[in-house]
Design brief:
binds zinc ion; 10 strands; alpha+beta
């Protein structure tokens, strides 16, 4: 046991480190979905006046309080969320530290990284309904990699940092191969194609595994294999759920009480090309706030084009009483729209949607493709499995679904949401993973005991 003073010192350090990392996570949350680089420019800038924030105005938590959440240069208000993310990350780092305890100190690093991934995924998913690949695939790779050096993450028992002399040569070899593949792959041939590069990298990792095994560090090999297996397990499980959901609920027929006018308009914004499909009277859009996607109004409904199509096979079907497109007009036609082109009564319309400004008409009914869950969530559960193991996958999926259902019904009851509106699932997965990390094994043991089974966990 450590004297209390040391314990306090380490805990304080964990919190301050977390708050500082949280400050960086704010940058990731803002920049990643906007496809801005997270390390260029190095300094944070005010989104309103582009003023580069000097270090003495970039102290986590403190700055926000001192400047009362305003930009020192232009006075623009910063959301209280910046403060919230720093505080949350600080508390998570502290909680991770308290939970791994000093005896298992090497576990703090991977779980701090993991907590950071969860924070970023949660807030980006709230804002944009996506989780970037850097977080999901990047997290999966990081989880496997860390489980190689710290196989205790995967419940492999071995002394911490044991056999580094056996582990390092393989790891360096694998890294070297991957780095070289990336560096000189282009000139040699088609190495830059993701498939081939993936195979090459996989071969390099296999080389590392074999070498560390032969050199006498089988625990490293099992750590990586278990981590990879857990990631694959999570991925396949949720992928199956998503595919089944697509089969069962993949299409939604919108019943219209009477034929309604519709207008499709090409839009361009900072995120690229998109389009608005408005069913009903279009004039309300100018009066109300049109920036809110999926906006509903007494007089009409706005559907954002990019929200409809999530896979190549998706199609939107409009039974039109009349249709006006460029100089052509049609009566009683079926328009099958793919993401970027139209079929009118089975014939491809010569102008693709990219080059169309608008088309409109009167629709009698329409069928919209639907996705129960995004693929970002599927990749995200793989990352969770890679860090926490296969049991966490089952626990996280179950608890996330339960929490999601309860909160979903609750928000409908208090009138904040409609049945049909979208909810991000990533935050619930993140919450489920945290519950597993802090309480999961105890909860499962308690559950099995209370139903009369001795726990096998
Ligand atoms: Zn400013």
């Amino acid at each position: 046991m450590l004297p209390r003073a040391y314990e306090l010192l380490f805990s304080t350090f964990a919190f301050i480190l977390g708050a500082n990392i949280g400050s960086f996570l704010n940058v990731c949350i803002y920049r990643m979905p906007r496809e801005l680089s997270v390390n260029k420019p190095k300094r944070s800038f005010c989104p309103s006046c582009q003023y580069q924030i000097p270090w003495y105005h970039n102290l986590p938590l403190i700055t926000w309080l001192l400047l009362r959440g305003r930009c020192a240069n232009c006075g623009a208000k910063f959301s209280v969320r910046y403060f919230g993310v720093e505080l949350l990350t600080g508390l998570l780092f502290l909680a991770v530290w308290r939970s791994v305890t000093i005896v298992n100190w090497p576990l703090a690093l991977p779980y701090w990284i993991f907590a950071s991934l969860l924070v970023v995924a949660t807030f980006i998913d709230f804002d944009f309904f996506i989780i970037p690949d850097e977080i999901t695939w990047g997290g999966t790779i990081a989880g496997c990699f860390l489980s190689y050096f710290i196989p205790q993450m995967m419940e492999v028992s071995a002394p911490y940092l044991a056999g580094m002399a056996s582990i390092l040569p393989g790891a360096i070899l694998a890294f070297g191969c991957i780095w070289m593949g990336n560096k000189i792959g282009g000139p040699i041939g088609n190495m830059r194609s993701p498939g081939l590069f993936g195979l090459w990298s996989l071969a390099a990792v296999a080389l590392a595994l074999i070498s560390s095994h032969l050199l006498g560090a089988p625990h490293a090999t099992s750590g990586l294999l278990r981590s990879f297996g857990s990631a694959a397990f999570g991925y396949l499980l949720l992928w199956g759920v998503v595919e089944a959901g697509k089969k069962a609920f993949g299409k939604k027929k919108m019943q219209l009480s009477a034929p309604a006018p519709f207008t499709w308009t090409h839009t361009v914004s900072e995120y690229g090309d998109d389009a608005d499909l408005v069913i009903g009277d279009i004039s309300w859009m100018k009066e109300e706030n049109p920036s809110k996607p999926d906006a509903n109004s007494e007089r009409g409904r706005l559907i954002q084009w990019s929200e409809i199509f999530s896979r190549d096979s998706d199609q939107l079907i409009l039974h039109c009483k009349s249709l006006k497109i460029e100089a052509d007009s049609f009566e009683d036609v079926v328009v099958v729209s793919h993401c970027d082109y139209l079929l009118i009564d089975g014939k491809r319309y010569p102008t693709d949607l990219d080059h169309l400004k608008t088309f409109s008409g009167v629709v009698t009914n329409l069928v919209i493709p639907r996705e129960a869950m995004g693929f970002g969530d599927v990749k995200f559960i793989a990352a969770i499995g890679a860090f926490l193991g296969w049991k966490s996958v089952l626990f996280t999926l179950c608890s996330a679904s339960c929490i999601g259902a309860v909160i979903g019904v609750f928000t409908i009851l208090i009138g904040k949401r409609e049945w049909s509106s979208k909810i991000p699932f990533g935050p619930y997965l993140a919450l489920g993973a945290l519950i597993w990390f802090f309480f999961g094994p105890d909860l499962v043991a308690w559950y099995f005991q209370s139903i009369g089974f001795e726990s096998a966990m």
